[in-house]
Design a protein that fits this description.
single chain; Ferritin; elongated
């Protein structure tokens, strides 16, 4: 089954936009004063990720993008994953940060979001034929992995 690179990139951009909205709302939460700089950093990182994905989407040298010769995803994925650009069972609905009452709740949700992105980018990196797109997903996966580590450290401090 084929899935076009363009659709995958658009879904990845949507994932980053949702993360930006989450972090933007989390910054407004009064319980986040102790983690404000971290949340602000993560927000800026998600904006940068969105820009990297937009650049990849607009890359002229990617063979086949928009020509019908798009990347073929390996056949070990389910039809549900194909139908939505690889998001099946990776990401779910996220609570509104305004409904989260504690700093730990927000940080734990942020951790789930970062793990979601890490999983998605790792899967897409491993399934893309285009080296340029694989490299984009690899860089994003590495950055999301760093975000996971930072959030785990912050959660440990929050528990002290």
């Amino acid at each position: 089954m084929r899935i076009i690179t363009r659709a995958i990139l658009k879904n990845a951009i949507r994932l980053e936009e949702e993360s930006c909205r989450f972090y933007e709302e989390a910054l407004k939460n009064a319980t986040m004063h102790e983690s404000f700089n971290l949340i602000k950093f993560l927000y800026s990182q998600e904006l940068e990720h969105r820009m990297k994905l937009l650049d990849a989407l607009n890359m002229k040298r990617i063979d086949g993008v928009g020509t019908g010769e798009e990347d073929e995803i390996s056949t070990d994925t389910s039809p549900a994953e194909h139908s939505n650009g690889g998001f099946a069972d990776i990401c779910s609905e996220w609570p509104d940060p305004g409904t989260l009452t504690t700093r730990a709740d927000i940080l734990e949700t942020a951790l789930r979001k970062e793990r979601c992105a890490l999983s998605f980018y790792t899967k897409m990196r491993d399934r893309m034929r285009s080296k340029e797109i694989r490299d984009v997903f690899d860089r994003l996966a590495n950055e999301e992995s760093a975000h996971v580590r930072i959030l785990l450290e912050e959660l440990e401090r929050a528990g002290d």
